[in-house]
C-alpha cells in the first residue's frame, strides 16, 4: 500500500454565495507527481492555499504529513510550510538580487549556522541540477522566462521540501521550453525525492509530468487516475471537451 503524504476529505469552501469547493477528496502519495487540472476559476488555487494553511476551509479534513492543518498553531504551521516548496507562476525572484543572492535568501533566513562553503556548495549543486550553473552572478532581468522558472524551482528546492507545489509551471513559455520544464519537474522528483502537485491547464504538461491527473469540475474531483484512464476513456462530456479544447488550441 502506498503511503499518503497529504490527504483531503470532504473539503468545502465558499466565499459568500460562491461555492468553490464542494466536497473535495484527494490523496497525494509519497513520491508521486499529481497533476490538478481545471478551468480558470474552478478553485485550484483555493485548494492549494487551504493545503498550506493560507486559507481556512469550511468543512472536511486536510492532513499534511500526518497533521490536520486547521489544528496547527501558527508556529507549527510555519514549521510545516518549510517542508513545502511553492513554485509560483511568475517565479517570484527578487529583481534587485543576483541569482546567488536570490537562492541564498531563503537559506540563511531559515537555516542557522551555515558556513559560506556550505551555502555555496548547496547553491552550486542546485544550479547544476537545473542546468544553469553559469547564471549564478546574473540578475533576473538578464534571464529568459524559462531560465527564471528554472531558478525559481532551484530556489524552492534549497530548503529540501518534501512536497513541491507547481503553479502553472509552463504558463507563458514557448513549446520547446515547456518540454524542458516538464522534464525538469520529473527530474526533480527523481533527484530530490519530492511528492508534487502540479496545477496546470496545459495537457501536454499534465501528460508529461503526471503519474496521476485529477480533474476539478463543479468543486469536486470528477476523475482521478493515469492520464490515459482519465482522458482516453472519458465518458463525461465536460472532461472530453476539456481534452478536445486543449488540443485544438
Ligand atoms: N479570497 C477570496 N475571496 C473571494 N473569492 C475568492 C477568493 N479567492 C478565490 N476566490 C474565488 O474563488 C474562485 C476560484 O478561484 P481560484 O483562484 O482557486 O481559481 P483557479 O482554478 O486557480 O483559476 P486560474 O486557473 O484562473 O488561476 C474564483 O471565482 C475566485 O474569484
Low-confidence stretches: none
Number of strands: 10
Order of helices and strands: EEEHEEHEHHHEHEHEEHH
Mean of pLDDT: 91
Radius of gyration: 18 Å
- The shape, in one word, is globular
Strand order of the largest sheet: 6-7-8-3-9-10
The helix/strand class is: alpha/beta
Q: How much helical structure, as a percent, in the residues?
A: 25-40%
In CATH, what is the class? Alpha Beta
The distinct bound ligands, ions and cofactors come out as: adenosine-5'-triphosphate
Protein name: Organic solvent ABC transporter ATP-binding protein
InterPro entries: AAA+_ATPase, ABC_transporter-like_ATP-bd, ABC_transporter-like_CS, P-loop_NTPase
Keywords: ATP-binding, Nucleotide-binding, Transport
GO molecular function: ATP binding; ATP hydrolysis activity
Short characterization:
The protein is an alpha/beta fold and 249 residues long. 39% of the residues lie in helices and 26% in strands. Strand 9 (212-217) and strand 10 form a beta hairpin.
Amino acid at each position: 500500500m502506498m503511503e499518503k503524504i497529504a490527504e483531503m476529505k470532504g473539503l468545502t469552501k465558499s466565499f459568500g454565495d460562491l461555492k468553490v469547493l464542494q466536497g473535495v477528496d484527494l490523496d497525494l502519495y509519497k513520491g508521486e507527481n499529481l497533476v490538478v487540472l481545471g478551468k480558470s476559476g474552478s478553485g485550484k488555487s483555493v485548494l492549494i492555499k487551504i493545503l498550506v494553511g493560507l486559507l481556512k476551509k469550511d468543512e472536511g479534513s486536510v492532513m499534511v504529513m500526518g497533521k490536520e492543518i486547521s489544528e496547527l498553531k501558527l508556529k507549527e504551521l510555519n514549521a510545516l510550510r518549510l517542508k513545502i516548496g511553492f513554485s509560483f507562476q511568475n517565479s517570484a525572484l527578487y529583481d534587485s538580487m543576483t541569482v546567488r543572492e536570490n537562492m541564498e535568501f531563503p537559506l540563511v533566513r531559515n537555516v542557522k549556522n551555515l558556513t559560506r562553503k556550505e551555502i555555496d556548495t548547496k547553491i552550486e549543486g542546485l544550479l547544476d541540477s537545473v542546468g544553469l550553473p553559469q547564471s549564478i552572478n546574473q540578475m533576473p532581468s538578464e534571464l529568459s522566462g524559462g531560465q527564471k522558472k528554472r531558478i525559481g524551482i532551484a530556489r524552492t528546492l534549497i530548503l529540501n521540501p518534501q512536497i513541491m507545489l507547481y503553479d502553472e509551471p509552463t504558463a507563458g513559455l514557448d513549446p520547446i521550453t515547456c518540454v524542458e520544464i516538464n522534464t525538469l519537474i520529473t527530474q526533480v522528483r527523481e533527484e530530490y525525492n519530492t511528492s508534487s502537485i502540479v496545477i496546470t491547464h496545459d495537457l501536454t504538461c499534465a501528460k508529461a509530468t503526471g503519474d496521476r491527473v485529477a480533474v476539478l469540475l463543479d468543486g469536486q474531483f470528477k476523475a482521478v487516475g493515469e492520464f490515459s484512464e482519465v482522458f482516453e476513456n472519458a465518458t463525461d462530456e465536460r472532461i472530453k471537451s476539456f481534452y478536445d479544447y486543449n488540443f485544438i488550441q
